[in-house]
Amino acid sequence: DDLRKVKDLLNDVKKDREFSFFIEHLTVKIRISAIELNVGDVGGTYDSGELYAPWVLYDGIQYRMYYSCYDGGSFIHGIALATSNDGVIWSKVARVITSDQSYDQNGAYNPCVIKDDSAPAPSRYKMWYKGDGTANDTCIAYAISSDGNTWSKQGSVLPDDEGGGGPWDWKIYSCSVLKDEAEANPNYRYKMWYVG
């Protein structure tokens, strides 16, 4: 019942709305500010069909939102960038990942991005994303950037296991990656969780 109440409240969110509710003797206060980033806004037609699956990163100067989108005509998904100074008001920048390689030619989406200040400049920003390739194969693909705007694709780093021995990852959908600074072995510092 409490979870349904929370869900109903979140579905009825209005900008800058505050509300409180009780769950087992706890008072929970939530303030939600709606962000404004609409399909096909200023910024081109690359996201006129849909925008979804945002990944937000604060880079020390501004918020950067990498989000999945498609143009509504070709239905080929790509990844775009919007920036914000406060995390509420966003300005679209451009599409930063297009579907142009065999491992992502049918779609590039569901980005996960980190900024690693200790990495060499060309790979300061790191992105992992879902790629839909030829023959209906899926993978996690990897790209690097020095500025978070212009990306260099590095290829597929985790292919699906379609037709292999693992029924739980015959398709791959998304991932989250973090860098574990406490890990002693440098080969295991990046940890990935993925949905298969």
What is the CA-CA span between the terminal residues?
31 Å
Which runs of at least 5 residues are low in confidence (pLDDT < 50)? 13-23, 28-32
Number of helices: 1
Q: Strands across the major sheet, in which order?
A: 3-4-5-6
From the alpha carbons, calculate the radius of gyration and give it in angstroms.
Answer: 19 Å
Strand content: over 45%
Largest sheet: 4 strands, antiparallel
Count every beta strand, where a strand is a DSSP E run of 2 or more residues: 12
Structural class by secondary-structure content:
mainly beta
Shape: globular
Succession of helices and strands: HEEEEEEEEEEEE
Average pLDDT over all residues? 81
Overall helicity = under 10%
How would you sum up this structure in a few lines?
This protein has one helix spanning 2-11; strands at residues 17-23, 26-32, 50-58, 63-70, 77-84, 91-97, 107-115, 125-132, 138-145, 152-159, 174-179, 190-195. By secondary structure, the protein is mainly β. The strands form 4 sheets. Strands 3-4-5-6 form a 4-stranded antiparallel β-sheet, with no helix packed on it. It has a 4-stranded antiparallel β-sheet with strand order 7-8-9-10, with no helix packed on it.
